[in-house]
Amino acid sequence: MIFANSEIFRRATAEIAVGVAACKSQCRYFGVCGGGAPVNKYCELGSLSSTETNYCRLSVLASADALLSFPSERTLTLLPEANPFEARVCPAG
Ligand code: SF4
């Protein structure tokens, strides 16, 4: 309780919120990330209010890109009857 009311905790919380807001306005991966891990921002870039880090690139961005590319690659390489995604596509109209 004492720490939660401390000046350093309030400043850190405010700085983290600035970083999350910057991520939200700048990063197209915000929907899957939510603004990242503050400790990585601080350790890599020296600021809790920063945005993209190597941690982002190597974990969030790489994973999200791989996940997003998977259905389109599978759609292109599988026969229609073997495509597990085709059954979920609603017919137009
Ligand atoms: S991936 Fe990195 S830059 Fe993007 S929202 Fe997450 S922490 Fe921010």
Summarize the structure.
The protein has 93 residues and is mainly α. 60% of the residues lie in helices and 0% in strands.
Describe the 3D structure:
- It is a single chain.
- The protein has 93 residues and is mainly alpha-helical.
- It has one domain (3-78).
- The chain contains 4 helices and no strands.
- The chain has helices at residues 7-26, 30-33, 38-45, 54-77.
- The longest helix is centred in the last third of the chain and has 24 residues, at 54-77.
- The mean pLDDT is 84.
- The structure holds iron/sulfur cluster (SF4).
- Iron/sulfur cluster is lined by residues 23, 27, 29-30, 33, 35-36, 51-52, 56, 60-61.
Number of domains: 1
Share of residues in strands: under 5%
Q: Which cofactors or ions or other ligands sit in this model?
A: iron/sulfur cluster
Q: For the record, give the distance between the C-alpha atoms at the N and C termini, rounded to a whole number.
A: 58 Å
Low-pLDDT segments: none
* Sheet of most strands: none
Radius of gyration (CA) equals 20 Å
Looking at the chains present, what oligomeric state does this protein adopt?
single chain
What percent of the residues sit in helical stretches (DSSP H or I)?
A: 55-70%
Succession of helices and strands = HHHH
The number of strands is 0
Which overall shape is indicated by the principal axes computed on the Cα atoms?
elongated
Summarize the topology.
Elements: H1 7-26, H2 30-33, H3 38-45, H4 54-77
Relevant terms:
single chain, mainly alpha, binds iron/sulfur cluster
